[in-house]
Amino acid sequence: MILLISDLHLEEERPDITRAFLDLLATRARAASALYILGDFFEAWIGDDAMSPFQRSICQALRTLSDSGTAIFLMHGNRDFLLGKAFCKAAGCTLLKDPSVVQLAGEPVLLMHGDSLCTRDIGYMKLRRYLRNPLTLFILRHLPLRTRHALARKLRSESRTQTRMKANDIVDVTPEEIPRIMQQYGVKTLIHGHTHRPAIHKLQIGELAAKRIVLGDWDRQGWALQVDDQGFQLAAFDFPVAALPQL
């Protein structure tokens, strides 16, 4: 059994999401041969050298799962594209390129975060190309921590404001991009996150039946895609209730 999740946006201010993630690691993920996290794992990441105690605790939880025998694969999202080799080494996980083709349920499957599919959002795509440029990444990683913190706050604020102002079809994937990229990589199944619109879409690419699976974001509930002998099963689950303090 394999699990795929994305868009947890982990941050110290959302202990309910953190609690749900740690519960997943201690239960379902322990029974999985692999766990794939397809981007926006953290709400923000300004560099491996700037890990907070909270982020270190998440890193250690991943390491514990990895040491138990579950392989962990992590992909960059638009919020945490500065996650690097140091974090992955400490967490015991493998950093995947976006996009990547992996074998799931006996077939090649294309995994993506999903933001690169939103080509109608011209302003964002321009910013994405700039931020992912190797020279830009080098400069960002070597800025003073105070500057990186300020830049992260600015980008998050602008992203929220612009997303509210943009039409729904602009911030969703471009329909024409789906068959194009699936044909490019020779797959019948695409799995991605980013849009926060969980669903399994049946497609027709040429003469072939295909599907696009969109993972859900973790906010009021969690989402996970389970791949096993029964196929691909996308389902939401409730967050565990916090334990009451001892009086």
Blueprint (SSEs and pairs):
Blueprint: E1 2-5, H1 15-26, E2 34-38, H2 53-68, E3 71-75, H3 85-91, E4 93-96, E5 100-104, E6 107-111, H4 122-131, H5 134-141, H6 145-165, H7 168-171, H8 177-185, E7 189-192, E8 199-205, E9 208-214, E10 222-228, E11 231-237
Parallel strand pairs: 1-2, 2-3, 3-4, 6-7, 7-9
Antiparallel strand pairs: 1-10, 5-6, 8-9, 10-11
Helix pairs in contact: 1-2, 2-3
Plain-language structure description:
It is a single chain. The protein starts with a strand and ends in a 10-residue tail after the last strand. The mean pLDDT is 92. Helix 1 packs parallel to helix 2 and helix 2 crosses helix 3. The chain is built from eight helices and eleven strands. By secondary structure, the protein is α/β, with parallel strands linked by helices. The strands form two sheets. A six-stranded mixed sheet has the order 4-3-2-1-10-11. Strands 5-6-7-9-8 form a five-stranded mixed sheet, with helices on one face. The chain has a single domain, classed as Metallo-dependent phosphatases (Purple Acid Phosphatase, chain A, domain 2, 4-Layer Sandwich), CATH 3.60.21.10.
Under CATH, the topology is which? Purple Acid Phosphatase, chain A, domain 2
| Global outline | globular
Q: What count of helical segments does DSSP give?
A: 8
Strand order of the largest sheet: 4-3-2-1-10-11
pLDDT averaged over residues: 92
From the coordinates shown, what is the CATH architecture?
4-Layer Sandwich
Number of domain units: 1
Q: What gyration radius follows from the Cα positions, in whole Å?
A: 18 Å
Helix-strand sequence: EHEHEHEEEHHHHHEEEEE
- Helix percent reads 25-40%
Largest sheet: 6 strands, mixed
Structural class, please?
alpha/beta
Number of strands: 11
User: What is the fourth-level CATH superfamily?
Assistant: Metallo-dependent phosphatases
Fraction in beta strands: 15-25%
> CATH class, anyone?
Alpha Beta
Low-confidence stretches: none
Distance from first to last alpha carbon:
41 Å
